[in-house]
Amino acid sequence: MPAxxxxxxxxxxxxxxxxxNQKRGWRWNTARAFLRPAxxxxxxxxxxxxxxxxxxxxxxQGDGALRCRGVEVRKDGGLxxxxxxPDYFLEIRVESQRVVRGVKRTSVTDYGxxxxxxxxxxxxxxxxxxxxxxxxxxxxxxxxxxxxxxxxDYFAFPAAAQK
Length: 163
Fold this sequence. Notes:
The protein has one helix at 30-41; strands at residues 22-23, 26-27, 51-60, 66-75, 78-84, 91-100, 103-117, 120-130, 137-140. By secondary structure, the chain is mainly beta. The chain is extended, with a radius of gyration of 25 Å. The termini are far apart.
């Protein structure tokens, strides 16, 4: 067999070194190297699928460094602006734009009062409404619990009425 130093020339006949990304014999890709560790090791990480980041909103710090404070995302047929807490990268505001029957509508949701619950940061304060549409709905939670004990009959259908 002839030696080959380039397997991209169209003729793959021959033997030689073939460049691959592997770790311990397994194919290694970007998702395994960077995304999976971020998903499993960070409590403030949320993975959005079927979404495309259109633009990052950067701000210059006092020392000249750039910091991301928001991202513009195309998701579910609409446009979302997600604003992040600069220290913890938690969502503090989401503005969603959708076109409904030819009219552009913008909804705004603000998140706050985050507490760590079961290893994940959870907002205990949520305000949501239409931009420019009056008072938003406000939700305040005193606490959040992971996997609480709930009696099975809590989810049962009501008994049929007797005739």
